[in-house]
Amino acid sequence: MNQPHPSEHYPVIIVGGGQAGLSMSYQLQKRDIRHIVFEKNRIGHSWRADRWDSFCLVTPNWQCRLPDFPYQGDDPKGFMLKDEIVEYIEAFARKVDAPIKQGVAVTRVRRGKQDRLEIRTSDGDYTADHVVVATGGYDIPIVPDYAHSLPQRIAQVHSMHYRNPGQLPPGEVLVVGSGQSGVQIMEDLHLAGRKVHLAVGSAPRSPRLYRGRETTEWLYDLGFYDLTVDRHPLGDEARHKTNHYLTGRNGGHEIDLRRFALEGVKLYGSMAGIQGARLEFKPDLRKNLDEADEVYARIRADIDKYIAANRIGAPEEAPFRKVWEPESEPLSVDADEAGITAIVWAIGFRPDYRWIELPVFDGRGHPQFRRGVTDAPGLYFVGLPWLNTWGSGRFLGIAEDTEYLAATIAERSASQRAAA
Q1: Residue 199: burial class (beta carbons within 10 Å; 0-12, 13-18, 19+)
Q2: pTM score
Q3: Coiled-coil intervals in this record (predicted)?
């Protein structure tokens, strides 16, 4: 950062121009706080470039509530497709009209002179009193080290790079991971007539419709989306849990992996390793299916209690029952013998915050904060799951989170001016 001329200074610099960064800009503009937004790609990039062709929201459109910019369409109970999500983000960007520089990557943030934060970018060096990190936590696609031992004749692709069934070579496909991406890609392949194998992980599942109403509407009324992380039984550990799986495809429906097994999808336990063409699995298929169903049944029970307590007229539903049980749990399969020609890795991402040289991370590289405010003066995070509530990290909770951070920055800025 040694330059012959001084760095340009801003009271606030926002890193990331997605829905969280744009929302932060909007809240700062309302308070007349000068700032700039750096976006390394272009607005809407991750929705446009990092999702498969049939991708759609899992949460209904009515939950799209960016600051003063609710869902604009005529299908609030539907689920926006990928291109519609991009259009929604771009329309919000036009409303915000943020002071944004697209195509500018931030490569370093550190403490500098006079306690200011120094920011190195591909566009030059800057300083700021406050830096808001709005890059999300989906930086590096996770692929296990043992994937390198797979023969090259078997194609591998991460969910981030999966687009459609025709992208994969002819033959059967193994999808690894049963989070939201994994089960939706499994269904995408299954509906296309591909023979699918699925390594089932520990993700929970949720009903889509229950007792005459969309489940997220019930959960909203129950206050689930207002549950704060400090009141969650798991505390901060809730931030690392996998989301419930279901889908918004074709109007939305739940995903019961047992039913897919009846339709020919081959289920295994969690992926354990690869030895050449031999794929190895843990003996936890039955356990993972049962635990996912327990969460599913618990959500239904919570709704039942709410309906009874409030004397709501709602149609009754039959109790949940398992439609399929694994007769055995295969611990390995030979990919060549099974005809598996491709693997889709859907086991998530990990964040990459190596460019932030401030002591705010735990041993796993995750930032530590309270409502997005870190212990490093002037550094904030926004747009992450469970930043404060279950709604954080979704379109539903961004307005509240960014409003809180903007108010915090405004208060701290006023205190700094008074002290000066």
Answers
A1: buried
A2: 0.95
A3: none
